[in-house]
Amino acid sequence: MNSTGTQIYVAKLAGTPVFDPLGDQVGRVRDVVVLLRLTRAPRVVGLVVEVPGKRRVFLPMTRVTTIDSGQVISTGLLNMRRFEQRATETLILGELLDRNVTLKDGSGNALIEDVAIERTRTGDWNITRVFVRRTDGRTTGLLRRRGETLIVDIDAVQGLEYTTAEQGAASLLAAHADKKPADLADLLHELGDVRRVEVATALDDPRLADVLEELPEDDQVAILSALPTERAANVLELMQPDDAADLLHELPDDQAAQLLEAMEPEEARDVRRLLAYDENTAGGMMTTDPVILAPETPIAQALAHIRRQDLPPALASTVFVVRPPLETPTGRFLGVAHFQRLLREPPHSPIGAILDTDIEHVTTDARLGHVARLFAAYNALALPVLDSERRLLGVVSVDDILDHMLPDDWREQPHTSLADMRDEKEGTPHG
């Protein structure tokens, strides 16, 4: 067991493997649960451990025999009941880091960047020190620089037990500004329930829309439900229509109806149309917002359309060419112009001159299995959905197919790295 006085910095514990007494790994540390107390040092009550299946369970500190930056060893079996945070509990990684505190020596404010925990003579684990970064340039005798880092005793700061919805969200998001939406969604999913909503609501609407499309359904519902109706409607308008429809499917009927009423009529119309289809049909999977152009459109203009930053790669691969009207349901569908073919032709030529008219299509009632087989047979990235009069109703893309074919909780499963796949193939443990 760790000797009394050993300090462990919590940020280093993230991802640390947890072993049972026999030496078998049972999970990894994802957070540390602490009780913040006004008159005594904050007490650590347990660890949040992620076990296979992305399930998070609670490991009481009374069941921990060894804890350091390399491993955690527990006694006996873990209780596999899903961890539920209590109102009196705070997650150090998810909620306490980035918290704004005041230094009691009068030298100004600081952000918490790490926390040290230590085992006392009584066997309890307490927060004893904090690693902070100054957020102002105030001085007390000696010159203090903004951005300076220092380690102070826990009783040298105040405001630890208080927070606001916005506190720390800006700095966390700034540190991950370059992350792709899927990676930022993974980061949000790692946070506690309260912190996840706080950080998500600090995103601007376009970024939040992109991230929501990558989150598990429970997280989507919790975040959207926390937004004011007007803002939630704006975010839904920025999502792909099929993703917005899938999210509304998960909400209570009265809440979904309220949000649809708050959306712009044109955007709501497309989503309502998708809500009418079975989720596992082409109609339920399709998006109503691909690149749709008339045959006389110059190739240069078509290329400009597929360069749109908000356009998913699968939809950017193909231009769908129709007779007016160009909004779904369109006029008669004529064919598609493939991205690679557009690059090989003179920019002033009309796209109607290079159409691929021999392309498979599906109807709105086509089942998932049938659509998936067409994608596999023709190496397709996107397929048109037509009605009996050959009007374009929407497009099913390959990412829509994958979303529906993978298990419902696939977004909650850990990602497999190339190293993991190599080790699995070779039959050797990774790490």
UniProtKB/TrEMBL annotation:
Domain of life, source organism: Bacteria
GO molecular function: magnesium ion transmembrane transporter activity
Residues spanning the signal sequence: none
InterPro entries linked to this entry: CBS_dom (IPR000644), CBS_dom_sf (IPR046342), Mg_transptr_MgtE_intracell_dom (IPR006668), MgtE_N_sf (IPR038076), MgtE_transporter (IPR006669), PRC-brl_dom (IPR027275), PRC_barrel-like_sf (IPR011033), SH3_actinomycetes (IPR058838)
Record-annotated CBS domain positions: 355-412
One Gene Ontology cellular component: membrane
Keywords carried by this UniProt record: CBS domain
Entry-linked Pfam families: CBS (PF00571), MgtE_N (PF03448), PRC (PF05239), SH3_actinomycetes (PF26205)
PANTHER family: MAGNESIUM TRANSPORTER MGTE
Name listed for the protein in its UniProt record: MgtE intracellular region
Originating organism: Jonesia denitrificans (strain ATCC 14870 / DSM 20603 / BCRC 15368 / CIP 55.134 / JCM 11481 / NBRC 15587 / NCTC 10816 / Prevot 55134) (Listeria denitrificans)
